Amino acid sequence: MQVSQFFDSQLLNKYNTSGPRYTSYPTALEFHDDFKHDDFVQAIKDSQNRELSLYVHIPFCHTLCYYCGCNKVITRHRDKADTYLEYLAQEIALQAPLFTDYKVKQLHWGGGTPSFLTHKQITTLVTLLKEKFEFSDDLEMSIEIDPREIEMDLAEHLFSLGFNRLSLGVQDLDRKVQEAINRVQSTQFIGDFIGHAKDVGFKSINIDLIYGLPHQTLENFAKTLDKAHEWDVDRISLFSYAHLPSRFAAQRKLRDEWLPNTQEKFALMKLAIETLCNYGYDFIGMDHFAKPKDELSIAQSDGTLHRNFQGYTTKGGCDLLGLGVSSISAIGNSFSQNIKELKAYYQAIETQQHAQVKGVSLSQDDIIRGEVIRELMCNLYLDKKHISKKYNIDFDEYFSEDLPLLDTFIEDGLVENNSDNIQVAQKARLLIRIICMSFDAYMKKHINQQRFSRVI
Predict the structure, then answer these.
(1) d(CA 251, CA 181)
(2) Is the confidence at residue 456, as pLDDT, over 70?
(3) Which H or E run contains 423?
(4) How many CB atoms are located within 10 Å of the residue 52 CB?
(5) Cα 277 from Cα 429, distance rounded (Å)
(6) Are 136 and 129 in contact (CB under 8 A)?
(7) DSSP tag of 396
(8) 3-state secondary structure of 382
(9) Which residues are bridge partners to 313 per DSSP?
(10) Cα–Cα–Cα angle for 454, 296, 199, nearest 5°?
């Protein structure tokens, strides 16, 4: 892959606007409270899928990272997790009977910080999930870890329970950057833990990195990237820091003058992509990297890469059930989300026997546009004939008002709109979110609203 083609600064600056990450279509902004729990139950009955991906949200963190926009609860009192797990157990007991004819293919714990839980709490939750749901023999079990608050033996404990994938939040290894974002951590421990987890038997280890953080420079971020290579991790997620202090109060602690400007942030992104590709990683989608023999790389090369609320994945045929505060589900032709506030989540479980607060039933138009956007996001290619046949439409006629929106991308050599397909040039990979907005029927009402992060 010719990496230099991604970095036409004139084009990237031209199109560096805000847009959805399209982990769903419609996006969560379109969820509404007219979608009731009865609609959720009906969606399960109507779904063509009988394989399930479970997402469990653990909201607790020991300390506040100032860059973070996730749904979390900051506390050092682990007993608060006991209360949460009691209510989570109730939700699991209420939801599981709806999925008795499903088989769980994937389990992911996110947050917050799932590794906030004690060994005993982790065991209790895994045991409960395996009691209530039918798990596949080839189950993929993954968990997100904060390396600051764990002991080395966590790797053995997780592996003994069936976890086979780890994701560590690293973000940046420079001390000055870490102090600014309130996330000081030991580089030595992270490396030792990754090596230990491999020895224990974990088959896949991911680290998260962020560019655009305070005080990041090409020199210090290069050292972080070199360490990632030295650790020989299987996957790397590279995210752009979205500075939205009006939405996330903690980000107000990060002074604007500490942040890289647009050109500096672009240079950090360019450095990261070039470095990781030169180290032999495949560039997956718009923000992931994986070794060539990794499942993500294989899925991208054979056109089966999928995208959902957890990002890029190989499990495209599964319904997704979210458990816990703020979690999102994708069941059949529906999306839904749980209550975001902890006390309200507890009250809802007690009073209404579920925590769902909003959602959306997909129209046929949503389904068609969702597949178009997903194919472009994952594969930079769309078979128009396949869409026409699958949905009994004439593609060009159906999207007659949308296709002209591609003209500016076509003029800049970023997109080809042929009679049978749409192809996105490799040099437009970093702009794919903006290109997909052309097919978003909801986007007009969000224009000029600061509701999404910028592309770069």
Answers:
(1) 9
(2) no
(3) strand 421-424
(4) 24
(5) 14
(6) no
(7) H
(8) strand
(9) 306
(10) 110
CA–CA separation, 394 and 385 (whole Å): 8
The dihedral through the CA atoms of 286, 193, 265, 180 has a sign that is positive
CB count in 10 Å sphere of residue 437: 22
Measure the CA–CA gap between 289 and 429, rounded to whole angstroms: 13
| Cα–Cα distance, 259 to 212 (Å, whole number) | 7
Domain ranges of the chain: 1-26+364-456, 27-321
**Tell me, what DSSP letter sits at residue 134?**
P
3 state DSSP class of 171? strand
| CA atoms within a 13 Å half-sphere pointing along the CA-CB vector of 4 | 0
Please give the single-letter amino acid code of residue 159.
F
Tens of pLDDT along 375-418?
999 999 999 999 999 999 999 999 999 999 999 999 999 999 99
Write the burial class of residue 279 (CB in 10 Å: 0-12 exposed, 13-18 middle, 19+ buried).
middle
Give CATH superfamily name and number for 27-321.
Answer: tm_1862 like domain (3.80.30.20)
**Which residue type occupies 38?**
D
139: helix, coil or strand? strand
Strand pairing report for 415-417 and 60-61: unpaired
Name the one residue in this structure whose structure tokens are 């070199």: 226
Query: Going by CATH, does the domain composed of 1-26+364-456 fall within 1.10.10.920?
Result: yes
Q: How confident is the model at residue 4 (pLDDT cuts 50, 70, 90)?
A: low
In this prediction the pTM is 0.93
Kindly state the DSSP code that residue 242 receives in the 8-state scheme: -
Q: Is the pLDDT of residue 448 over 50?
A: no
Dig out the tokens for 20 from the structure: 């959805």
In this prediction, residue 313 has a pLDDT band, given cuts at 50, 70 and 90, of: confident
Query: What's the full length of the chain, in residues?
Result: 456
Predicted pLDDT at 408: 93
